[in-house]
Specification:
This is NTP_transf_2 domain-containing protein. The protein is mainly alpha-helical. It contains four helices and two strands, in the order ααβααβ. The chain has a domain of 56 residues.
Length: 108
Amino acid sequence: SPEVREAAAHGLDSGRHRLSDDSQQDRRLSEELHRLLRKAGFTEHRVKRQQRLADWLQGVARVLTQDKRMMTGSYAEGWANSLVQVNGRTAADSDIDWTVLVDGQEFH
């Protein structure tokens, strides 16, 4: 019916408007996060160095475990020490997360 089509069209228009508002909000939040990260000293060079460190750490973990475990979480990403303290020591309550996927085991 024309009324149903009109209601559906209105719903699509309002959904598009909401998506536009959400996109604008996402952009503002992204720009604010970028500004704060830059202010805190994050640079492209340092981020690349951090990523190389995380990749190296993953490689060391693979060699040491040799059982297809994957280190996951902030430690694997190289951030574990950085987020808690800047003296290079791991906090006493820190842990290292590992993920093991078992062949043939169905999860979903």
